[in-house]
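We emphasize that the prediction below concerns an isolated chain of 400 residues; any contacts that depend on oligomerization or on bound cofactors are therefore not represented. The input was used exactly as deposited, without trimming of termini.
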Amino acid sequence: MKQQTVLDTNISVDRLVPGGQGIGTLPGGKKAFLWNTLPGETVTEFLVTKKKSHYIEGIATKFENPSKFRVEPKDTCYLSTSPWQILDYTYELEQKRALVAESLRQEHVAVSDGVEIKPTGTDGKQWFYRNKMEYSLFWAKEDSMIHLAFHARGSHQKFPIEKSSIEKPEIFSAAKQIVDELNRNREDSRKYQSMLLRASSDGTVSGGLFENRQPHPIFNNLKDTILGQTYSYSPNGFFQINLPVYELALKEIKQHIKTDKVLDLYSGVGTIGLSVARDKDLTLVESDKSAYRELENNCQGTTATPVFAKSEDALEYIAPDLTVILDPPRAGCEKKLILKLLDETPEKIIYLSCNPSTQSRDVKLLESKYIIEQIAPFNFFPKTPHIENLIVLRRKESVL
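Result of the prediction step, given as a token string:
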């Protein structure tokens, strides 16, 4: 739809929702989900980005009663990359903990007395934490030059950027060098779909440009050390974005593994299982061909068993005498996997999720035979509404 600005309105923002926007109610009763807002503020003008029969989405452009937790964003492009740059960092951590609680409440998940959601885990670093970034390219007729760009939130429109403060500086520097070379060679920006770059912890950068209608190129692999173990991975494959905070989550996971056997589902290149259960009878399941090749490499020199399969199709590996680690995509686990877990009742289920809503849905299905032992959110993505949440489930004694 064509964006339009709504003027002369008064929307009181009640709270932040799991998607990251502030929610309020229009005079006619329709709900409004608005970026660039905080609870307690009154929006008097906003840009509409989506209009549905029961709700509307947009970006606040004018507001009254600014929240005491509002801070000045660091980047002009913040709405595209990290819309929670307007939140005080302590408040951000509190809100993420509250959103985990809200996801559990919405699914009516039973949380035993004495089990509290832990404070959101963080290494305290708010900026320059991302080890991966994807950019668009923008040709400006004003200077006849190509510039790095992002898409405006709620729009397909691109806009040029001069700086960005959430990715590692080595990534942005390498991106600028690639753009400079394109300009020296008088390249056409329309030739390229995007640019993807990744940096290892030592500052080595790999990646490059994706050309339209061409297969994605194969980039040089990177290596990183996690909890003392070295992993090889492809820049355009899956690998955690914020390794220092990821290590905090792994240390928490390791404390809960008491069985001799461990099954790591949705294992990727193996960073969870091989970091926390390398000394166990460990099986790791992965379905992506590229990730599985890296998983095989990372398993060399260990007794771990890599399995090439979808986790939902590897149900024969689930047994009562083991710990199951789950780290599914945002959609969560398929129903048949949940049913198999309920049938076999492994001793513990350790569920790490980038989507507390689908995680809560899955945990609700498991609670007939499991109780929650721990809930621990982690701030993998500072200045964004994204939350990584860990839930540890223990089999009920009455099940045995």
